[in-house]
Design brief:
Length: about 240
């Protein structure tokens, strides 16, 4: 909560001094466990303010509020993007997110940890598409502040994701069921008509292609030495992350 709120306040104050524009990397989490589907920017969301996810959800919501307060009160130029589940090469191995967990588990022939029954959905956006959307947003007219959804409206259940990743990795892994975390959103998919209209943007990398590129990158980082033999490096999760 402090990172989200004090962080954006520092950035906004600095931008005031420098007359700079501010990009707020907001999130689909501001919609919480959404009752409206797909999610449009006009939807106010459904967030539990005291649950274990609240520090992120409410922190990001408060950060959006601060951006718009600075815009209204001081005329600061702000741009707010609501990013939906980005994935791709160079993700940190130990970030705990579903794509990195499943890909690592599949490549190591370990069971994939499916939380709940796997019917919950997300819409995954390939990193290059997200970056292109953010660049377009920053280059848009000063009159356009957002918030704008940036995501790929290709909805996928976690069970389907597990099957896709097992197939892409040519893995012998099975799936094990683990408890569903509290307040885990049941469904999520962006309506991107605003981004299409205001930024001329839409994602171009389908999930199948994005997973192929992601698995290739994870394979390269996980298995060192003779690539043909594909021997595990024997290091703990995260040790080979380029960011580590
Ligand atoms: N998830 C899962 N297994 C994992 C990690 C996550 O089944 O090893 C589920 C998680 O419960 C959620 C979905 O995958 O329903 C996406 O989780 P992630 O943390 O990647 O993104 P977020 O929930 O923040 O959108």
């Amino acid at each position: 909560m402090r990172t989200n709120v004090l962080g954006i306040m520092n950035a906004l104050d600095l931008a005031m001094r420098l007359q700079a524009r501010v990009l707020q990397a907001s999130t689909s989490e501001v919609y919480g466990d959404p009752i409206q589907h797909p999610q449009r920017e006009a939807y106010w969301g459904n967030v539990n303010p005291i649950g274990p996810r609240a520090c992120y959800d409410e922190g990001k919501r408060c950060a959006e509020t601060l951006c718009f307060d600075y815009f209204r009160q001081y005329g600061l130029r702000i741009k707010v993007a609501r990013i939906f589940n980005t994935y791709g090469p160079r993700m940190q191995f130990d970030d705990g997110r579903v794509v990195s967990n499943f890909v690592l588990q599949a490549l190591r022939a370990e069971p994939l940890t499916l939380y709940g029954d796997g019917s919950q959905t997300r819409a995954f956006c390939y990193v290059d598409d997200t970056v292109e959307g953010l660049m377009r947003l920053m280059h848009s007219d000063d009159g356009f502040n957002g918030p704008v959804n940036l995501g790929n409206p290709q909805e996928c259940s976690m069970l389907e994701l597990a099957a896709r990743i097992i197939a892409e990795c040519d893995s012998t892994s099975c799936v094990v069921s683990k408890p569903l975390p509290q307040d885990d959103p049941r469904q999520r998919m962006p309506d991107i008509s605003l981004a299409q209209k205001a930024l001329g943007w839409a994602p171009v990398v389908a999930l199948e292609e994005g997973l192929r590129l992601t698995v290739a990158d994870f394979r390269k980082r996980l298995f060192v030495g003779d690539a043909a033999e594909q021997k595990p490096a024997g290091l703990k999760v995260g040790c080979l992350s380029e960011n580590a």
